[in-house]
UniProtKB/TrEMBL annotation:
GO cellular component, as recorded: nucleolus
One BP annotation, GO: DNA replication initiation
Protein name: Nucleolar complex protein 3 homolog
Start and end residues of each stretch annotated as Disordered: 1-32, 614-653
Organism from which the protein derives: Ditylum brightwellii
Residue ranges of every copy of the CCAAT-binding factor domain listed in the record: 425-578
C-alpha cells in the first residue's frame, strides 16, 4: 500500500510537460508559441521600438559575434532577476532576458520588429552566416526516450542538450524563412501568370535557403529545404529566385558523394515536371545535366541484388545493423553498393522524365502552329531533354535504346523542318552516341540520322549562336571521324556543303567548319577530287545541293570553288583554314582542332580583339627589290584593336 503513491508519482512524471511536440526528425522540443505568447501578453509594444536603425544594426553585429564566440551559451537564457517586480519590467529588461539566438530570430522576423524589412534582412543574413559556421557536418540523431532514461556522463548530457537546442532554433529559422517567402509574394503557383514580383526580403529568404542547401545538405531538415527550392526553381516571376534554386540543386548534384540527397531531389523534380508538363522552365530540366552518373543500368541491377542480400543478413541481427549504420554515418567512406543503387534510381527517374518530354513532343503534329501558346513551353523542353539523353545515353540498357531510337526517328522524319536547330542537332547527336554506345551491336543503318544532319548544316549560315556550331561539330565528328563512312558520294556531298556554309557563315562558325574539312580530306582521300578544276573531271549531270538525300546531289559534278573565295576573307583564321584545305595541308592537332579554333575566336570577340588579314597585291609594273621587297609577314598579317559593336559585327568580318 505504501508503494502505490510512488508509482502514481512516477506515472505523472513520465507524462512530461504539455507544451512539447515531436518534430519530423524525432526531436522533442518546446513549442515556440509558449515564448511568443509570453511576449504578447507581458509586453504589447515591440521590444525594438526604442532602437533606431544604427542601434539595431550594431545589436545584430554584437549578438552574432557573441554567438560565434561561444555557441554553447547562445541558446541559454540569462539568469532572471527575481527581485524585479513584474510591473517594473520594461521592454529592454525583457528583451535581455531571452537567449541570444532568440533575440536574433525576433529581429529577423518582420512581424516582430515594427515591420522593418532592412533589419529583418540583416537578421536572416546574419543567422545564415551563424548556422553555416556552427552546424556540424554530420546528421544529428536525437536520443530516444529510453536512452534519455539511461544514466550517462555529464558531458554526454550536455552535448545532447546542445544538439537539441541547436535543432530547435535551426527549425525555427527555417520556418521563419519559409514564412517570410510566403508573406512576401510567394503564395500560390509560380506559373499563374502573375506579374507582381516578390519583395526584396522574400528574395533574400530564398537565397538563404539556397546557401543552406549548398553548405549543409547532409544535415537535418534537408527535405524541407528541398521541397521549397524545387518548387521555386520554376518561379517565372523572379529570375533571380529561380536561378538561385537551380544553382543550389546543381551544386548538390555535383558534390553529393553518397547519392541519397541527389536521388531525393531528382524525385521531387521529376514529380513536379510530371504534374506540370507544359509549364516548366528549360533551366529546371537542365539541372539534371550536373548529375555525375556513372553506373550502367545492368551494373545497378547487380548492386540491387547485393543490397537485398545484405539487408536479409542484417535483419537477423538488428542491433548490430543499427550500430553499423551509426558508424557509417560518421565515416567519410562511400558505400559503393548504396551509391550504385542510388545512382540507378536517379538514372531511372531522369530518363523517365526525358522520355515523357519526347513523347509529348512526338505526339504534337504539325509544328509550332498546332501547339497552344499556353503550352508552348513543351517545345522549349525538347532541347534540354535531348541534351540530357545525349549525356546519359551510354548508361541505358538495350531495351531502352530501341524505344529511344524509335522516338528520335519519328522526330527527325516528321518534324525536322519545324524543330529549332538546337533540338534537331541534339536529336542527331543523341542518336549517334546511342548507336556508338549501348546500341553498338544493333544492325541499324545510320543513314537515317546522317541525312537530317545534311539538311541542318545550311541553317548555320545565318545563325549567330555559337553553341549550335559546337553541336554541329560534335555530330560531324561522330558521323565521319569516330566511325567509317563507306559512301564516297555522301562524304563528298558533306564536304561540298561545309565549304558552301563556311563561305556565308560568321567567323566563329566558318573557321571551325573549314578546320573540320581539313580533317575530312585527310581521312577520306576520295574528297580530293573536289579540289581539282571542273574541266579536269569527267562526269555527267549537275550538282543539286537542295535535295534531301545527299547521295542524290551529285557532288562530283562540281568543285569546291568556295575555298578560292574564303581565302580572301578578312578574318585571318578563316583565310588560313581555307588555304590549308585547298593545299591539303595536314592540320597540326590539337592547336588547329575545330574546338580550339572556335574557342580562340570567341575569346577574341569577347575581348574586342580581332585579327584581320590585309592582302597587299604587287603592282604589275613594279620591279622586284627596294621597298617592294619588304618582309611579307609585316604586310600581310596586321593586328588591330577595335571596339566591339553590338550590331552586324559578324557581317563586317
Amino acid at each position: 500500500m505504501g508503494s502505490a503513491p510512488k508509482s502514481r508519482s512516477r506515472k505523472k512524471a513520465k507524462k512530461g510537460p504539455a507544451t512539447t511536440s515531436k518534430a519530423a526528425d524525432g526531436v522533442v522540443k518546446k513549442h515556440p508559441q509558449k515564448v511568443m505568447r509570453t511576449i504578447e501578453t507581458d509586453i504589447e509594444e515591440s521590444p525594438l521600438s526604442h532602437l533606431n536603425l544604427s542601434m539595431r544594426r550594431d545589436l545584430i553585429a554584437e549578438l552574432s559575434e557573441a554567438v560565434l564566440e561561444d555557441p554553447h551559451s547562445a541558446f541559454a537564457a540569462p539568469k532572471k532577476d527575481d527581485d524585479m517586480d513584474k510591473s517594473e519590467r520594461t521592454i529592454t529588461s525583457w528583451f535581455e532576458s531571452v537567449s541570444k539566438m532568440r533575440r536574433l530570430l525576433l529581429m529577423a522576423d518582420v512581424s516582430k520588429n515594427d515591420n522593418d524589412e532592412f533589419t529583418a534582412k540583416l537578421g536572416i543574413m546574419s543567422l545564415l552566416a551563424i548556422f553555416q559556421d556552427i552546424l556540424p557536418t554530420y546528421r544529428i540523431r536525437v536520443p530516444s526516450q529510453a536512452e534519455m532514461n539511461v544514466r550517462v556522463s555529464k558531458d554526454t548530457k550536455k552535448m545532447w542538450d546542445y544538439e537539441r537546442d541547436l535543432l530547435t532554433h535551426y527549425r525555427l529559422y527555417l520556418q521563419l524563412l519559409e514564412k517570410t517567402w510566403n508573406n512576401g509574394g510567394g503564395k500560390g503557383e509560380s506559373s499563374n501568370g502573375g506579374t507582381t514580383p516578390p519583395t526584396g526580403l522574400a528574395v533574400a529568404s530564398i537565397l538563404c535557403l539556397s546557401e543552406l542547401l549548398k553548405s549543409n545538405y547532409h544535415f537535418n531538415f534537408r527535405s524541407n529545404i528541398l521541397t521549397v527550392l524545387v518548387r521555386q526553381s520554376n518561379n517565372k516571376r523572379c529570375t533571380k529566385v529561380s536561378q538561385a534554386c537551380c544553382d543550389a540543386l546543381k551544386h548538390v548534384f555535383a558534390t553529393d558523394a553518397q547519392g541519397d540527397v541527389s536521388l531525393e531531389a531528382t524525385k521531387l523534380l521529376a514529380k513536379m515536371i510530371k504534374e506540370r508538363p507544359n509549364r516548366i522552365r528549360p533551366d529546371v530540366l537542365r539541372t539534371f545535366l550536373s548529375l555525375p552518373l556513372r553506373v550502367h543500368e545492368d551494373e545497378a541491377q547487380a548492386a540491387k541484388l547485393a543490397s537485398v542480400a545484405n539487408a536479409k543478413k542484417r535483419k537477423k541481427d538488428a542491433e548490430a545493423a543499427e550500430i553499423e549504420d551509426e558508424m557509417k554515418e560518421g565515416e567519410s567512406n562511400v558505400d559503393k553498393i548504396a551509391l550504385a543503387r542510388a545512382q540507378s534510381d536517379t538514372l531511372h527517374s531522369v530518363t523517365l522524365t526525358y522520355f515523357r518530354v519526347l513523347k509529348s513532343e512526338a505526339d504534337a503534329k504539325g509544328g509550332r502552329a498546332s501547339i497552344n501558346p499556353t503550352t508552348d513551353t513543351a517545345v522549349d523542353l525538347l532541347s534540354p531533354a535531348l541534351e540530357g539523353l545525349a549525356k546519359f545515353a551510354h548508361l541505358i540498357n538495350i531495351d531502352t535504346v530501341v524505344d529511344l531510337l524509335a522516338v528520335l526517328r519519328t522526330l527527325l522524319k516528321e518534324r525536322s523542318d519545324t524543330l529549332p536547330i538546337d533540338a534537331a542537332l541534339n536529336c542527331i547527336l543523341t542518336a549517334f552516341q546511342t548507336l556508338q554506345g549501348p546500341g553498338r551491336e544493333m544492325q541499324i543503318d545510320q543513314k537515317e540520322y546522317v541525312t537530317p544532319l545534311y539538311r541542318q548544316l545550311s541553317r548555320l549560315c545565318t545563325d549567330k549562336n555559337s553553341s549550335h556550331t559546337e553541336l554541329a561539330l560534335k555530330c560531324l565528328s561522330l558521323a565521319f571521324l569516330k566511325r567509317r563512312e563507306y559512301s564516297t558520294v555522301r562524304v563528298a556531298a558533306f564536304f561540298k556543303q561545309i565549304c558552301t556554309v563556311s563561305l556565308h557563315a560568321p567567323p566563329h562558325t566558318a573557321a571551325p567548319l573549314l578546320a573540320f574539312s581539313r580533317q575530312l580530306v585527310q581521312r577520306y582521300p576520295s574528297v580530293q577530287q573536289l579540289l581539282e578544276n571542273e574541266q579536269d573531271v569527267i562526269t555527267t549531270g549537275s550538282y543539286t545541293p537542295d535535295v534531301e538525300d545527299p547521295e542524290h546531289s551529285n557532288p562530283h559534278a562540281t568543285s569546291a570553288w568556295e575555298l578560292s573565295l574564303s581565302k580572301f576573307r578578312i578574318h585571318e583564321s578563316v583565310a588560313k583554314q581555307a588555304i590549308g584545305t585547298a593545299e591539303q595541308k595536314i592540320p597540326q592537332l590539337p592547336r588547329e582542332s575545330p574546338d580550339r579554333i572556335r574557342a580562340t575566336i570567341l575569346r577574341d570577340i569577347k575581348e574586342g580583339h580581332i585579327g584581320y588579314r590585309r592582302s597587299m597585291r604587287k603592282h604589275p609594273l613594279s620591279q622586284g627589290g627596294g621597298r617592294g621587297g619588304r618582309d611579307k609577314r609585316n604586310r600581310n598579317n596586321q593586328i588591330r584593336f577595335i571596339a566591339p559593336r553590338n550590331t552586324s559585327q559578324y557581317h563586317l568580318l
